[in-house]
Amino acid sequence: xxxxxxxxxxxxxxxxxxxxxxxxxxxxxxxxxxxxxxxxxxxxxxxxxxxxxxxxxxxxxxxxxxxxxxxxxxxxxxxxxxxxxxxxxxxxxxxxxxxxxxxxxxxxxxxxxxxxxxxxxxxxxxxxxxxxxxxxxxxxxxxxxxxxxxxxxxxxxxxxxxxxxxxxxxxxxxxxxxxxxxxxxxxxxxxxxxxxxxxxxxxxxxxxxxxxxxxxxxxxxxxxxxxxxxxxxxxxxxxxxxxxxxxxxxxxxxxxxxxxxxxxxxxxxxxxxxxxxxxxxxxxxxxxxxxxxxxxxxxxxxxxxxxxxxxxxxxxxxxxxxxxxxxxxxxxxxxxxxxxxxxxxxxxxxxxxxxxxxxxxxxxxxxxxxxxxxxxxxxxxxxxxxxxxxxxxxxxxxxxxxxxxxxxxxxxxxxxxxxxxxxxxxxxxxxxxxxxxxxxxxxxxxxxxxxxxxxxxxxxxxxxxxxxxxxxxxxxxxxxxxxxxxxxxxxxxxxxxxxxxxxxxxxxxxxxxxxxxxxxxxxxxxxxxxxxxxxxxxxxxxxxxxxxxxxxxxxxxxxxxxxxxxxxxxxxxxxxxxxxxxxxxxxxxxxxxxxxxxxxxxxxxxxxxxxxxxxxxxxxxxxxxxxxxxxxxxxxxxxxxxxxxxxxxxxxxxxxxxxxxxxxxxxxxxxxxxxxxxxxxxxxxxxxxxxxxxxxxxxxxxxxxxxxxxxxxxxxxxxxxxx
Length: 723
Fold this sequence. Notes:
It is a single chain. 48% of the residues lie in helices and 11% in strands. It is α+β, with helices and mostly antiparallel strands. The chain has four domains: 4-204, Glutaredoxin, CATH 3.40.30.10; 217-359 and 448-634, Glycosyltransferase (Alpha/alpha barrel); 367-441, no CATH class; 638-718. A five-stranded mixed β-sheet has the order 3-5-4-6-7, sandwiched between helices. Strands 15, 16, 17 and 18 form a four-stranded antiparallel β-sheet that branches. It has a four-stranded mixed β-sheet with strand order 22-21-23-24, sandwiched between helices. The protein starts with a helix and ends in a 5-residue tail after the last helix.
């Protein structure tokens, strides 16, 4: 996008301004409160988002995004200063302390702009739209995101973090605001002239490389070959720093190994899972993964914990456990899920969104240790063993303190300490049990307690799958409670809401909310055979198609037909930190097509895959989840019908074989012969009966079934697994 002349003008105006900020008359400034309360209070005090409420006492006259603020900008002919972030974001906190709590900078913002604060987790549409602009004009993006808009919401300048004074090669925020205010006054025609070009460029972000083609096994091979050069064969993960888990791409590699037998993919996943689980990015004491590692060794994390990361990573470790039942994988899954139940579940069964990177104003303070602290709790002998194993030294590995990590195998450390591996394991287990409650006495990082439909559903799937693979009935009950919470609080007939906090549910659901909820409901049906879950899945899947599927363009949009109109629609195509709603939707449609025998579902999924063929194969790191859907589409898919009372031991043993086997491409339907007749039998269950009064499993492909089996060993052989 050609925006250079305008940016040069803004820079000229910026450096022509004095370094100190002049005193400005405030416009609609926040009210000062009594000395017993915070000094200022603005409109964000009425919001439910913890991120917005964090800014409710800034001297900035913040508005939430909404008609009031947009009308004000048009009525007063003022540009909009849009600030987007999230509550667990470290640099968002930094910019707040430095600039938004600075009264001189706030004076400038209030005098010249309508200031709008947005929680990106509540409004992914605004975040995606304006992040596209920032990335197009600056070549990078991130949070906090700062974008300046015309009164009709068209961006004309943007960036991420800005310091209060000139530093880091970035202009001071107050002077930048003055320069942009002057540019808006003096160069309105130029800004207006740029508007069509900006809108065309933003609309073009909805267009991926053209060239529809059928997805084949060769397409998946091509995607694998594109990913392979990025393997970090020393530390695991994909090369470079900062290093994100890449869980969806790793999941695709497991699927590709299952399809082709290419061991390099599986070996790379094994390396990555072990290195991540032993690194500082994993909370060695409390379970759960931090968001990413700032280095290539997984040592120093960005300390926030996100619900969605732990949902995706627990699924990845589960699938690795199905393929190779290593105790490490099962332990990581259970520690993640136990952490979620302990720290991230509300009393009614919903899951909170995030935990902050900071505590007491310092990043990571809650999680780090010194040898002295550990010695005071454990005593000399246990402390020496613990510090040796978890890399705790006097010099430290993070700002003079220590992030717990496991750089060396247990056997090696045990040998150095003249202990057996079993003795060291016992000492470490007892030490963790003593250190954890001591850590709990510290001031914890802030927790964002809003409950998001899509993220909850992602986590719900993990609990369902873990209940099956690890035989944890308590996890299934956690999932059921979560599903009931979502259906009660965030569903309105066949429409979804995005967010719930403090008894208030609001904001129309996005594509990912619908798609993830359908996936969750399908998982519950396949785990329990309870038809209510499947019926609900069909309802919300059909609503999703009605709202988000554009039949003319044959693409999914992030926002639905009933959603607020933005300056341009936003497409949901890339698998980034979370799966794109469109990727999950394709997966769901393929499964539902089999379970309900509705060919339209498969046709829509097939059309989407064909339209995505080129980016899928050229840029596979952006389509990890969709590659899994493509693998499912190509099949073969095991269609498994189990007839029997799900509570009986014989039926459970059959289902245990099904779920302990790595079968990424399967659908499961359960028929309880004692259950009341429903509204009609599923095609996969038609004609299926007990065998001589015993529970039986039927393994089918394209509704063509082999002879039923009643013994777990027989079923294992049918599924290609050794008994």
